[in-house]
């Protein structure tokens, strides 16, 4: 099915946009960047944050948009940083996260991505996926954000150094759900 209308991706993060654009174009969906910084909403729910970010972005651009909200949930820290991943990254960073798990063998974590679509008419639509993995003991070189410390299950390297992050990333999985819906909606 053909995409009939213009679609924007609202974000201030160009790394994220690059990945989203690459993944979606392979799925037949074209997007344009709407570069904007949304107010960081505090909530314990990624769904709630994603929903509010989508409405906020739509209010500014008045065109159909998608946004993505992510969270890194570490089991032994009861899910921290989760919905506070962006704040934790900006404050303690990858070094701080690793220091919270000194020599611990309990390093299981998951990366969650929520895609929210809003056209100003229908309810906000949410598409969620998560990828299980582990927090590395060392910070690897390369990548962006938490890439250098997140090892997806089945791999020996972090997102920063895997051969094809798009093949199994939390982002790809939720974008696939979104594109399946979006291409049939239009
Ligand atoms: P955000 O609030 O949705 O932008 O994401 C929460 C935090 O997770 C931010 O610090 C992002 O940089 C980080 N993040 C989201 N996706 C990825 C990824 O694919 N790799 C590494 N870090 C990510």
Name of the CATH first level = Alpha Beta
Average of the residue pLDDT scores: 94
Strand content: 15-25%
CATH topology: Maf protein
**What is the C-alpha radius of gyration, as a whole number of Å?**
16 Å
Low-confidence stretches: none
Distance between the termini: 8 Å
Number of domains: 1
Describe the structure.
- The chain is an alpha/beta fold and 186 residues long.
- The chain contains 6 helices and 7 strands, in the order E-H-E-H-E-E-H-H-E-E-E-H-H.
- Strands 1, 2, 3, 4, 5, 6 and 7 form a 7-stranded mixed beta sheet that branches.
- Helix 1 (14-26) packs across helix 6 and helix 3 (85-91) packs across helix 4 (93-99).
- The structure holds inosinic acid (IMP).
What is the strand and helix layout of this fold?
Blueprint (H helix, E strand, L loop, with lengths): L7 E4 L2 H13 L5 E4 L10 H16 L3 E10 L6 E2 L2 H7 L1 H7 L8 E11 L6 E11 L14 E3 L12 H4 L1 H16 L1
Parallel strand pairs: 1-2, 1-3
Antiparallel strand pairs: 3-4, 3-5, 5-6, 6-7
The chain binds inosinic acid.
The site of inosinic acid has 15 residues, from strand 3 and helix 3.
Short descriptors:
single chain, 186 residues, alpha/beta, Maf protein, 7-stranded mixed beta sheet, 7 strands, 34% helix, globular, binds inosinic acid
Tell me briefly what this model is.
The chain is an alpha/beta fold.
